[in-house]
Amino acid sequence: MRKTRIKPSAAASQRGAVASKNAEQPLPAGAEAEGARAKRSVARREAILAAALEEFSAHGFEAARLDDVARRAGVAKGTIYLYFSDKEALFQALVRSYISPVVGTLEHVTHVDAPFRAVAEQLAELFVREIVETRRKDVIRLIFSEGQRFPKLAEFYYREVISRAMSAVRGLLRRALERGEITNEALVRFPQLIVAPGLVAILWKSLFDRLDPLDVRAMLHAHFDNVFGVRRPA
Fold first, then answer.
1. What pLDDT, in 10s, does the model give residues 47-60?
2. Is domain 29-86 annotated with CATH 1.10.10.60?
3. What is the greatest pairwise CA distance in the chain?
């Protein structure tokens, strides 16, 4: 028995032809111009943030000047104020753009249902790859050096980064304790004991690495072995 091929109706064919014709039509000139302006705006904002990171890293928060940020970014100083109300807002945006996404990844990784040691190894690799081996470590170093003189910056960084990271690590440790993967309850009370070598690594890289290079990955793995008493598989 031959199958009957169902042909589209004339109206359906006409609608399809119209849709195809519309899909082939270019965007109106106004839409293209708007899209181009949006791309330029994003590019300027990114350039300003990159320039701010360079200036803050070289001179510190207090000494860094928005004139120099603008010059490095290739924009007028007034352009900065189109995106950021002042130098403090610029620094906060720098943290949100460079550090907060890494914290988000950390929060995701800590919810992975896997043995504690495996998750800890993933977090160590994340820290080395996304912080130690990038300019993000300079943002953290700035908090170390400027936080006491500018407590609002330290408070912002605590809310945006530290509190979230500590909550994620504490939750991971609590789960490991409940599963019997760790036995020391003090680690849950003081998750700073787990992350402290990461802070040491940033300070060491900033001050002494040219004199005595530090293998951060190896140090973190040795730290895990020391704390948990478990060697990584060879």
1. 999 999 999 989 99
2. yes
3. 88
